Amino acid sequence: MKTAIIFSSKHGTTAKVAEMLAEQLKLDEIKLFNLQHKNEVNLQEFEAVILGTAIYAGRPMKKTKRFIRRNLKTLKTKKIGLFICGMDPGKEKQAEEMRASFPDVLLNHATTKYYLGGEFIFEDLSFFERFIVKKVSKVNKSISLIHHENIKKFVKEFKGETN
C-alpha cells in the first residue's frame, strides 16, 4: 500500500517520530513529506496518508491545518492515520489538542489517531522559546518524552493487526 506520511516539524521531533513510524510500518512504498519544506503533495499517488503535527503552546502548526483544508476532499477518500507530538502530560489536554489539529470529519474517518509525545531540545530552541518552556513547563534542560509504546500501537492499528 503506497503511503504518505505528511507532517509539520519545526525543531525535528515530529520528523523523528514520522521516521519511526515509517521504519516500523515496514511498507514497500512509503514517502515522508515535511510541510515546513514542501507545501504540496500529490495525494492521488497514495492509497493511505498519515498526517502529523507538532503542538506549540497547545496549537497545531498552521501549515498542517492549511494543507488539510486544501486537501480535505481527497483525504476523505484515503486510509488515514493521525498523530500529534507535544509535551502536555494531561490526557484531557491531549484530546483537546487532537481535536484542534484535525477537523471532525477526518477524526471520524481515521483508522488510528494517537498522541505520540514530544521533546524539548534546548540546543534547538531560540532564547525566547527556552524562556517560555522554562516558565510554562518548568523544564530547564533537554528532555525526551516520545511515547514509543503509542508508536507501536499506532503501527499495529494502522496495519489492521489485532494482536
What does this structure look like?
The chain is α/β, with parallel strands linked by helices. It has one domain (3-117, 148-159): Rossmann fold. It has 6 helices and 8 strands; from the N terminus they run E-H-E-E-E-H-E-H-H-E-E-H-E-H. The protein has helices at residues 13-25, 62-75, 91-101, 104-109, 127-137, 148-159, and strands at residues 3-8, 30-34, 48-56, 59-60, 79-85, 112-115, 117-120, 143-146. Strand 3 (48-56) and strand 4 form a beta hairpin. Helix 1 crosses helix 6 (148-159). The longest helix has 14 residues, at 62-75. It starts with a strand and ends with a helix. The model has no long low-confidence stretch (mean pLDDT 87).
Helix content estimate: 40-55%
Broad CATH class: Alpha Beta
What order do the helices and strands follow? Answer: EHEEEHEHHEEHEH
Number of strands: 8
The backbone outline, from C-alpha atoms, is globular
Structural class, from secondary structure content? alpha/beta
Give the name of the CATH architecture: 3-Layer(aba) Sandwich
Give average pLDDT, whole number: 87
CATH topology: Rossmann fold
Task: Please report the number of helical segments.
Answer: 6
The end-to-end distance, rounded to whole angstroms, is: 20 Å
What is the alpha-carbon Rg in Å? Answer: 15 Å
Q: Kindly give the count of domains.
A: 1
CATH H-level homologous superfamily name: Flavodoxin domain
Question: What about the largest sheet?
Answer: 6 strands, mixed
